[in-house]
Specification:
The two termini are 31 Å apart. Strand 6 and strand 7 form a beta hairpin. The strands form 3 sheets. Strands 3-4-5-8-9-10-11-12 form an 8-stranded parallel β-barrel, surrounded by 7 helices. A two-stranded antiparallel sheet has the order 1-2. It has a two-stranded antiparallel ribbon with strand order 6-7. With 312 residues, it is α/β, with parallel strands linked by helices. It has 10 helices and 12 strands. The chain has one domain: NADP-dependent oxidoreductase domain (TIM Barrel, Alpha-Beta Barrel), CATH 3.20.20.
Length: 312
């Protein structure tokens, strides 16, 4: 698998990373033993960036990944987790909470350090100055203590991530749903700032949290109805050609060499194999053009997240 430098961290990350959200039960039930087997297969195939969060199932995702990385697998993985987001409507970005969260994550993951630790979904904190001061300093302390090698922040609004990069000396950020068939603002707006500051970008959710799939979005998806309708039409185009919209959605960011890595949620070996197969295929430009025609009118449409309006 293609690997690329992640900003100035020195990490060489795979084009496709392993997202641990499904181990939190966000996308239905999963089998733990199968999930652990998926972790092993992914690492063997070079898909060795493993990302999780305490938010995913209240620590369940970290617990499963910790079991999967036992017995020598940890040394073969680039391990990333987060802090600050506890549950759907519970957040705590205080220094004490950040440090306590890190200790809990290390215990669940069965390791003495993670490679990347990030404040999770910072747009849900009303006092962003606190995030850029107290939270950031807590992350720096953990880095100095060797609890993590690199630090960052994550969020949906592109404008917020730009502000975070320009305000704090971040090694990494996660941007999700903004380098997709629906939205390219990560490439247009965020990447130039990150490049200038030496910050690595981890791209996530190429299927835009399940909306760019044949099954359509989960019930909780925050996109406007116009976006959901357009994605259903795009899925119908793919169906007529015997293709899968989710494969095309993954292939799109993978065709952009300026994107170092893209996280894809995985829960079993079949999904690992499917993502690897999609990554090996060349992008079908003719199909892409038909799909983009259906999505044209909703390009760049965003939704509110936390305390940020839908400006992206």
């Amino acid at each position: 698998m293609r690997t690329s430098a992640l900003g100035q961290t020195g990490l060489q990350v795979p084009a496709v990373g392993f997202g641990g959200g499904p181990f939190g039960g966000f996308y239905g039930a999963f089998d733990e033993a199968e999930g652990i087997a998926a972790i092993h297969l992914a690492i063997e195939q070079g898909m060795n960036l493993i990302d999780t969060s305490p938010y995913y199932g209240g620590g369940r995702s970290e617990e499963v990944i910790g079991k999967g990385l036992a017995g020598g697998w940890r040394d073969r993985a680039i391990l990333a987790t987060k802090c600050g987001r506890i549950a759907k409507d519970r957040f705590d970005f205080s220094a004490a909470a950040i440090k306590a969260s890190c200790e809990t994550s290390l215990r669940l993951l069965g390791t003495d350090h993670v490679d990347i630790l990030q404040a999770h979904d910072i747009e849900f904190e009303q006092d962003l100055d606190r995030v850029f001061d107290e939270t950031f300093k807590a992350l720096e302390d953990l880095k100095r203590q060797g609890k993590c090698r690199f630090i960052g922040m994550t969020g949906y609004p592109i404008g917020l991530l730009i502000r975070a990069i320009e305000t704090c000396a971040l090694d990494v950020v996660i941007s999700y749903c903004h380098a997709t068939l629906l939205d390219r603002t990560m490439l247009d707006r965020l990447e130039p700032v990150a490049l200038r500051r030496g910050t690595g970008i981890i791209n996530a959710s190429p299927m835009s949290m399940g909306i760019l799939t044949m099954a359509g979005p989960p019930e909780w998806h925050p996109a406007p109805q116009s976006v959901k309708d357009a994605c259903r039409r795009a899925a119908a185009v793919c169906a007529r050609h015997g293709a899968d919209l989710s494969d095309l959605a993954l292939q799109f960011p993978l065709s952009k060499t300026e994107i170092a890595t893209t996280l894809v949620g995985v829960k079993d070996r079949a999904e690992v194999e499917r993502n690897l197969a999609a990554a090996r295929k060349p992008l079908n430009e003719a199909l892409l053009a038909e799909v983009m025609a259906e999505l044209h009118d909703v390009q760049g449409v965003c939704w509110p997240s936390g305390h940020w309006a839908a400006e992206g």
